[in-house]
Amino acid sequence: MELTTNPENKQVGDLSFPARKVWLKTYGCQMNYHDSERILAHLSELNFTPTDDQNDADLLLFNTCAIRDLANQKFYSHLGETKKFKDVKIGVSGCIAQTDSKELLKKYKHLNFAFGTDAVDNVKEMVYRAYAGEDKFAVTSWDKTGDYSIETKITHGSPQAFVNIIKGCDKFCSYCIVPFTRGREKSRRLQEVVDDVTKLVQHSGIQEVTLLGQNVNSYGKDNGESLAQLITELEKISGLQLIRYTTSHPYDVSDELIAVHGTSKKLSNHLHLPIQSGSNTVLQRMLREYTVEHYLGLVEKLRKSNPNIVISSDIIAGFPNETQEEHQATLDLLKQARFDFIYSYAFSSRPGTKAARMNDILDDEVRGQRLRQIQAQQIEIQAEVRQEMVGKTYRVLVEEKTAFKNEEKWKARTNCNRIVHFQTSAGENLQWNWVDVKVVSATALSCQAEFITSYGRFLN
Ligand code: SF4
User: ∠178-360-177 over CA atoms, to 5°?
Assistant: First the structure.
């Protein structure tokens, strides 16, 4: 869907909306980027089009993340800087708005409104109220209706779409703020998601969907449905080429889902399965509800079910009071699991969580050192794992042209979510084409390929 403004004023209720520009800054996870896309799509109905230039904007919005301290600090400083803009409306949404709206509105006098994660689909109402003259208001109530029913909004021209299938999280891991910022789990009904994706494929040219949820494996529990059933139904949609899902919790990976990884022709050969630590005692303190043995058992079953699957993970270095032995267990786990890649972070305390109340003896230096050890170990393993790609042919979806070591190359993504770079002699535009490439070299962090052939934008 292209977002266009109406040169004429748009009449909405008692207000007239001339063509205006919205600048929206997103922090954090894919869920937030997905919410931002919904916000922009809703605002197009009030005659707003997006702009990258704050100076050009009539409305400034921040979609915030409460998980990472760094993102928090960046947001606060960025919001402070917007004080200089006159004649604009400024709003904050997302996780920080959900928990800290009152403080934000009190501290930042130039902020007009704030709304939480359950109010994203009511953004038009907030903006309407702001333009009607209401100021300093916040909407952070939870949607108490039983259903979670939405339609995916697309505001880009790519064939990839994020489709939210479950919101909230019931897990309460001791370090995580998400259950407090996103509320309890609620799943969309299976048939609604199937209809939604069918429409995306038939009307918006979507060929790849990523099913989203904070704990996507929990999908359907409240309705007697499951992620495995959903994937099996989505697989039947003609024209849909690739299905991904994220983020998974190991406790909720069912045998039924593992089996689908072996039988599905459209499910990605990649699974992101966060383990967080290789130590059972740390996992207990994290309230993660599984053991290292259980996790490795899942990895083994998944690899048996689909020998081509690649698995990635998340690791937190230096969880409160982590001993050297517990840290070593994580280094050992990396060797056993042989992940394709990891996202690794030094523990950072989130106010309001159980971990934030732990009496912690570790300091930043120890955390930084352990993080570097974890990353160095993973890079070694990753280099070996990625070597297996050399000489193999992959069908990839070309995403964009990028500068790679001072050369212009196409950047493409394999079915198993690895990035490859390649060049072509002709100057054709391959963006969003499916092409075959042969990998000629691979290191831990980059993969170079030779172009073989292009199939155009749509695979038959
Ligand atoms: S499962 Fe994920 S989102 Fe839920 S509490 Fe744990 S870390 Fe947070």
Answer: 5
pLDDT, position 1: 43
Q: Are strands 393-404 and 407-414 parallel, antiparallel or unpaired?
A: antiparallel
Runs of H (alpha helix) within 221-310: 227-234, 255-263, 280-285, 292-305
Q: Using most ligand atoms within 8 A of CB, pick from 67, 170, 173, 288 the residue to mutate for ligand 1.
A: 173
Q: Given a cut of 60, is residue 4 above it in pLDDT?
A: no
What amino acid is encoded at 58 in this protein? D
Q: Which atom of ligand 1 is nearest to the CA of 214?
A: 3
Query: How far is ligand 1, taken at its centre, from the CA of residue 57, in Å?
Result: 35
Whether the Cβ atoms of residue 91 and residue 25 lie closer than 8 Å to each other = no
Ligand 1, atom 8, residue with closest C-alpha: 176
Query: Which residues of 329-446 form beta strands (DSSP E)?
Result: 342-346, 393-404, 407-414, 419-422, 434-442
Which amino acid, residue 80? G
CATH class held by domain 393-454 = mainly beta
CATH of 10-139, one of 3.40.50.12160, 3.40.630.30, 3.40.190.10, 4.10.640.10: 3.40.50.12160
Among residues 78, 86, 67, which one has the least CA distance to residue 24? 78
> Which range (109-118, 216-225, 270-279, 419-428) has the least confidence?
419-428
Coil, helix or strand at residue 362: coil
Domain with CATH 3.40.50.12160 in the chain: 10-139
Its pTM stands at: 0.90
The ligand 1 atom nearest the CA atom of 249: 1
Given a cut of 80, whether residue 68 has pLDDT beyond it is no
Instruction: Report the separation in Å between the CA atom of 36 and the middle of ligand 1, taken as the mean of its atom positions.
Output: 21
425 vs 453, which has greater pLDDT? 453
CA of 223 to the centre of ligand 1 (A): 21
pLDDT at 3 over 80: no
Pocket of ligand 1 (CB under 6 A): 169, 171-173, 176, 178-179, 214-215, 249
d(CA 298, CA 292): 10
Nearest ligand 1 atom to the CA of 179 is: 5
Cα–Cα distance for residue pair 224/253, rounded to 1 Å? 16
Evaluate if residue 382 carries a pLDDT over 90.
yes
Q: How far apart are CA 274 and CA 277, in angstroms?
A: 9
